[in-house]
Design brief:
Layout lengths: L13 E2 L10 H17 L3 H19 L6 E4 L2 H9 L10 E5 L4 H9 L6 E5 L10 H7 L4 E7 L11 H10 L3 E5 L11 H4 L3 E5 L11 E5 L44 H17 L1 H21 L17 E4 L3 H10 L2 E2 L1 E3 L2 E4 L7 H13 L6
Parallel strand pairs: 1-10, 3-4, 3-5, 5-6, 6-7
Antiparallel strand pairs: 2-8, 7-8, 9-12, 11-12
This protein binds pyridoxal-5'-phosphate (PLP).
Pyridoxal-5'-phosphate binds next to α3.
């Protein structure tokens, strides 16, 4: 079957908004039906549900080229980052978190929430035109006071993709840890956590991985480090989930120590179906396809005189292109009335194609934007 045909939405609507939420596939719909059928048939098949958790963990590990015991399955990126923050002691000389101007609100807000525990948070500045963060700015910001560098792989506002390996290596050479937020990248390109070697890598299932909200994940480079025991916990974070020991917290030694309560079971079914679909297509195929579509979008937008906020170099952006608008909410609504799904942030229209989009979607969108050009800069 053609990939697009697996997404019924395209029969009536052009969804080009995967940076916000991926489209619903037949496979993910069936996964939810399977969950309901399992409840009808078995009531509470906990053994199978825990197997689903382990299958999701192992698929995420495969996706990130990570050993399976270094993956925690969380309820969101925010939950994962809160867990990481809870491992940290900010009382010493190294009390500084180096975040960026490109951070998603959650990660930045969680770091600022640590100020009451002694953390100092600074933000690495974006370039004057706002479409990248120069590496020199990281060289200036990271020093012997830096405990952790928190970087987004791809910026949620403008699609800017950071060349993360040199930043990770720089941070490590200066004795700092790194958190890489790959939510806007995962599912659009291959990510090798073992090769990149950030201390933590976080992401979720709702966007380009084609699952749903309610499931996030974390890769933890350093397993079994007692120095990194989170202050958040729960029975699914224990070394033995069946121990039921209320007199002691005995966290798992592997990444599971970052988990908490009952997993989000319906969304685990969806996560498994979403990742399997992505794997069956292949990340290199997806990356090449998305690059073709974003290339055509940039070219068509420039030809029509629209202003692009995203860096024009294809190596410096992810699957999303941001286009300047005079009234972004009105523009999104106008495009919605033309049966085109987009989103907006920071004065920009966000267009984020995925494997199910095609050139016709881009052409159709550009023509609709021309119709509403008074809403574009
Ligand atoms: C880059 C990035 N990080 C984090 C998040 C938030 O993730 P969660 O809601 O799972 O905490 C988003 C959501 O859009 C995002 O784009």
């Amino acid at each position: 079957m053609n990939i697009r045909e697996q997404f019924p939405i395209f029969q009536h609507f052009r969804h080009i908004n995967s940076c916000s939420h991926g489209a619903l596939s037949l496979g993910v719909r069936k996964a939810y039906e399977d969950y309901l059928n399992d409840r009808d048939r078995y009531g509470a098949p906990w053994g199978y549900w825990v197997e689903q958790l382990e299958e999701a963990r192992s698929l995420i590990a495969g996706l990130l080229n990570s050993p399976v015991d270094r993956i925690a399955v969380t309820s969101s990126v925010s939950a994962a980052v809160n867990g990481i923050a809870g491992t940290m002691d900010f009382s010493g000389e190294r009390n500084r978190i180096v975040a960026t101007d490109f951070d998603f609100p959650s990660t930045a807000q969680i770091w600022h929430a640590q100020e009451s525990r002694g953390a100092e948070v600074i933000h690495v500045k974006q370039s004057p035109d706002g479409n990248t963060i120069p590496f020199e700015n990281f060289i200036e910001a990271i020093d012997e006071r830096t405990k952790l560098v928190s970087i987004p792989h791809v910026c949620y506002r403008n699609g800017a993709k950071l060349d993360v390996k040199p930043i990770i290596d720089l941070a490590h050479s200066r004795g700092a840890m790194v958190l890489l937020d790959s939510y806007q990248a995962v599912g659009t390109c291959a990510i090798d956590a073992s090769a990149l070697a950030p201390d933590f890598l976080v992401g979720g299932l709702q966007k380009y991985l084609l699952g749903s909200s309610g499931t996030g994940f974390m890769y933890v480079k350093d397993d079994q480090s007692s120095a990194k025991i989170p202050t958040s916990s729960g029975w699914f974070a224990q070394s033995d989930v069946h121990a039921m020991n209320i007199y002691q917290n005995e966290p798992a030694l592997d990444a599971r120590r970052f988990e908490a309560g009952t997993p989000n079971i319906p969304n685990l079914y969806a996560a498994i179906a979403g990742i399997k679909l992505i794997q069956s297509i292949g990340l290199d195929t997806i990356e090449a396809h998305v690059r073709e579509l974003t290339g055509a979008l940039k070219e068509g937008a420039l030809q029509r005189g629209f202003k692009i906020s995203t860096h024009l170099d294809a190596d410096k952006h992810g699957a999303m292109i941001a286009i300047k608008s005079t009234d972004m909410d009105k523009l999104v609504a106008a495009l919605m009335s033309e049966n085109i799904g987009t989103s907006c942030r920071d004065g920009n229209l966000r267009v984020s194609p995925h494997i199910y989009n095609n050139m016709e979607d881009i052409e159709y969108l550009l023509n609709a934007m021309t119709k509403y050009k008074d809403l574009l800069v």
